[in-house]
What does this fold into?
Amino acid sequence: MALNYERIMAYRPADIPVSYGPRDCILYSLGIGLGMDPLDPGQLKFVYERHGLEAFPTMAVVLGWPGRMTDPAFGLDETMVVAAELKVTLARPLAVADELIGRPRIKEVVDRGPGGPAIILATRDLLARDGTPVACIESNLLARKHGGFGGGVTTLPEPPAIPDRPPDRVCDLPTPPHLALLYRLTGDENPLHADPERAKAAGFPRPILHGAATFGIAAHAVLRQLAYPADRLESISARFSRPVFPGETIRTELWMAPARISFQARVVGRDEIVLTNGLATLRE
It folds into this structure.
């Protein structure tokens, strides 16, 4: 299937109205594994409405999402498209209930050459009804074996580097076997994460966890080091390097600094890095 660069770059979804409330906040938090320890007050405040409920910061990734790029005119084989990179920048903490506007657009498509992937760079602004910014979500999609379409951009900027020393802290977080089935209720119903046959067709032995869910789990590990202050997270970014299978334990390795935390995450049982070049910046 040949990628249609012009059609993808011309993709201009209409503004997306966003309305959410406490139940949506709770569902998202459960979808990234919060509440696995129901006696932990730090986790409980994201999953129980009578415990000073707060919105988990990375919930921004599911707000105003325009959906998967399934139009055949794009020339994308949906079974070959996976998350490559994600960044969330928050102009202010998310409210527990709000009405926003999502404004998505495609920035560029990177061509890694014949036989290689194409990388679709997308961005989405979340705006308050008066137009003031709330958050910006930058998401890169990796379309495997879609390179060689003649694109003029062939490289990406260098990501934040991981320090060359042992991590300062390590945080292990388990994932339940049904986590992908739960996370998909936040909006991403790609069958790759639920249907065993679709997963096999894409080259995986079984359904994989959403990259955005793995990203949220790493964000959980970051905030856990700080006793869960949701309002301190200003931005967080990471690259996806390997898939996660629901039921695996994710070990996040963290390098601490006063206003920034570098991190990477690996699956404990396979000792494979699944997230790399992670960076969280904090409000003072």
The chain is about 15% helix and 30% strand.
